[in-house]
Design a protein that fits this description.
Blueprint: H1 14-19, H2 40-46, H3 51-55, H4 58-72, E1 77-78, H5 85-90, E2 94-97, E3 101-104, H6 111-115, H7 126-139, E4 144-149, H8 151-160, H9 168-176, H10 178-202, E5 206-211, H11 219-225, H12 227-235, E6 244-248, H13 255-260, E7 265-267, H14 274-281, E8 285-287, H15 299-313, E9 319-320, H16 333-345
Parallel strand pairs: 1-4, 4-5, 5-6, 6-7, 7-8, 8-9
Antiparallel strand pairs: 2-3
Length: about 350
């Protein structure tokens, strides 16, 4: 009887094997924001369609999610959506303003504001179920990663009313109104967990929890005021048996805590070398972490740095190659294709 993995089953592909710490025949690779603004085919299909409108159109979601898989041959697809989509779906008055980001009409200030946000059920996001069902059929052996925003980052948008560089209002609530803060993060954790369960139920093979702004916190504040809520999201998925990736930006001092929250894989941004990150995350796989700007360097410079990262990643329980944050809008897709081929062939 053959002991070779079944390549038609996503569970036996390099990506999911690496997340579980199992042997792989090559380092798997996918990119955050791989389905997005750097692809000319993406710009064509998105023309005239607002971001959140696109995220609620199953046909568009399917097409956009598939585009980088077709072009690059990456080892995993990432579901095309946005971290504020579940809020929009439950009725929060918000929009994504081009050039600005998510803007909330009525920022959260009180316990009544928190209570007014409905809990999410599958009935709020039928388009997600339709899109993922379609995607899984199209992707075949390529696994699909579902995702959601982590409680701190989503809370920051809700409290600030939009993107913020200093998160002053967010921290003011966290420090000065802990009962409102706790209620808000519990609410968001429930919404994020429910949204991820919908995605896995429809066929997603893994999930990633994005905490884009967690790097604004000290380890002590993260442990006290944020970690329990991120842990609630990841813990709510424990019975589903899918790998859980936890990623944040500027979180070098938080990597151990992010692993403690329940991650199977800890994403590492480009600021922290994998050699420094791996001892911090414990018996977990890592993901990352080429500086997205290195894709603009000469190919041989880019691939030399990628080789260093792959070599460093061998010390971890498992390693999924990725950029240290999202693909930049002006990235040359041909260069990203060259990077993908290099990673998949290096040491294979």
């Amino acid at each position: 009887m053959s002991t070779q993995p079944d390549r038609s089953d996503p569970r036996d592909g390099a990506f999911l094997r690496a997340t579980r710490g199992e042997p792989v025949d090559h380092t798997p690779v996918w990119y955050m924001r791989q389905a997005g603004r750097s692809l000319p085919e993406y710009l064509r299909v998105r023309e005239g369609t607002a971001m959140l409108e696109a995220c609620m159109d199953p046909d568009l979601v399917t097409e956009i999610t598939l585009q980088p898989v077709r072009r690059y041959g990456v080892d995993a697809a990432i579901f095309f959506s946005d971290i504020v989509l579940p809020l929009k779906a439950v009725g929060v008055d918000l929009d994504i303003v081009p050039g600005v980001g998510p803007v909330v009409a009525h920022p959260v200030r009180t316990l009544d504001d928190v209570a007014a946000i409905p809990d999410l059920t599958s009935e709020h996001v039928p388009f997600t179920t339709v899109a993922i069902t379609s995607l899984v059929a199209e992707l075949g052996s390529t696994p699909l990663i579902g995702f959601a925003g982590a409680p701190f980052t989503v809370a920051s948008y809700l409290v600030e009313g939009g993107p913020s560089k200093d998160h002053a209002l967010t921290k003011a609530m966290m420090f000065g109104a802990p009962e409102i803060w706790d209620a808000l993060l519990r609410k968001i954790a429930g919404i994020s967990a429910a949204y991820l369960r919908v995605q896995v139920g429809a066929g997603a093979s893994a999930v990633q929890l994005f905490d884009s702004w967690a790097g604004a916190l000290t380890p002590g504040d993260y442990r006290r005021s944020v970690l329990p809520h991120s842990a609630a999201v990841l813990g709510a998925l424990g019975d589903l048996g899918v790998p859980r990736i936890h990623f944040g930006v500027g979180t070098g001092s938080l990597l151990g805590l992010m692993g403690e929250a329940g991650a199977d894989v800890v994403g590492v941004d480009w600021r922290t070398p994998l050699s420094s990150a791996i001892p911090l995350v414990g018996d977990r796989a890592v993901q990352g972490n080429l500086d997205p700007a290195l894709v603009f360097a000469p190919t041989e410079v880019m691939t030399a740095r990628a080789a260093e990262i792959i070599d460093a990643g061998r010390a971890a329980k498992g390693h999924v190659f990725n950029l240290g944050h999202g693909v930049l809008p002006s990235t040359d897709p041909d260069q990203l294709k060259r990077l993908t081929e290099f990673v998949q062939g290096y040491g294979a």
